[in-house]
Design brief:
Length: about 290
């Protein structure tokens, strides 16, 4: 299983046992608002939900949708297939990277990143606008946040209250990635080995997931929003202050594992993606992620 340009997120999620995946449905390109609302109702969805392209990268157009008006806006920008996923309101979000060599019986976790959503903390005196502009990461998202919270910018946030600004765990949306590799142990590797062996053809990639507690992570009580293959990185290297030298060492090992797993799979009868196929995938990706302005 790959996880590169042009691969359907929905097809990947369907390979994961249902107990680990939030309710997700696929909408074909150019679905109408009426079709979306009808299927949401038929499938027992309630707002808020997550909309995301079926083919996409780096959090491209992943949106938390909280109203019918926001559905209208989202549909007006797209001409391609997209997913609607139930909003997983669990307190912790992680990226867990798993590796198993095809000739070996057991795999292991190689990276864990915890994602701290973009937020501000009230002081009982400052308005939401002031808190946003005082925080560097939030200030960079101002053009979007001033629209999202246009009716709350003058609100004074009570002291010590955590106000989450963005609920999507993506670096480009202001999420802080924190190295949590200290959580790796035999139990964690055994849990993700057991889950991963139920995913046909999966040897290498990152689970982007949510859970309520660290113990739930160890026990596999998780919800997987996405499973990314060889296009994913061991994202703990984006911890602020993580040295370039250490990060390059991690990436070289990461790339070495990709090479070794690919070579072993070739010996087992898999086929390399041709340059021609690669161009087709890339063209499909570029076409699918075109936004209507």
């Amino acid at each position: 299983m790959g996880g590169m340009f042009g691969e359907s997120k929905y097809d990947v999620l369907k390979k994961i046992p249902e107990q680990y995946v939030p309710k997700t449905i696929l909408f074909k390109a150019k679905s109408s608002k009426q079709e979306v609302l009808k299927l949401l109702s038929e499938n027992g969805f309630h707002l808020p939900v997550i909309f995301k392209p079926d083919i996409g990268e780096r959090g491209f157009m992943v949106k938390k949708i909280e109203s019918e008006d926001e559905i209208d806006i989202y549909l007006s920008k797209f001409s391609f297939s997209f997913l609607i996923q139930e909003f997983v309101d669990l307190s912790l979000e992680f990226g867990v990277f798993y590796t198993r060599f095809p000739q070996e019986e057991k795999g292991y976790v190689t990276s864990v990143v915890r994602k701290e959503m973009l937020h501000v903390i009230g002081d009982g005196a400052s308005t939401l606008k002031e808190l946003i502009l005082q925080k560097d990461r939030a200030k960079l998202q101002w053009d979007t946040l001033k629209i999202t919270y246009h009716d709350r910018l003058k609100e004074v946030i009570e002291k010590n209250k955590v106000f989450e600004l963005v609920s999507i765990g993506n670096h480009c949306l202001g999420t802080m990635f924190l190295d949590s590799s200290h959580l790796i142990n035999n139990k964690l590797s055994e849990t993700f080995d057991q889950i991963s062996k139920q995913v046909d053809g999966f040897y290498f990639g990152r689970y982007d997931l949510r859970c309520n507690t660290i113990n739930d992570l160890y026990e596999g009580n998780i919800k997987v929003m996405e499973l990314n293959g060889c296009g994913a990185e061991p994202a703990h290297i984006y911890q602020p202050g993580y040295s370039l030298r250490r990060a390059m060492g991690v990436l070289f090992m990461h790339w070495r594992n990709i090479f070794l797993i690919a070579r072993q799979n070739i010996k087992r009868g898999a086929a390399y993606t041709t340059i021609k196929d690669g161009k087709v995938f890339y063209k499909k990706f570029k076409t699918s992620t075109r936004v209507v302005v």
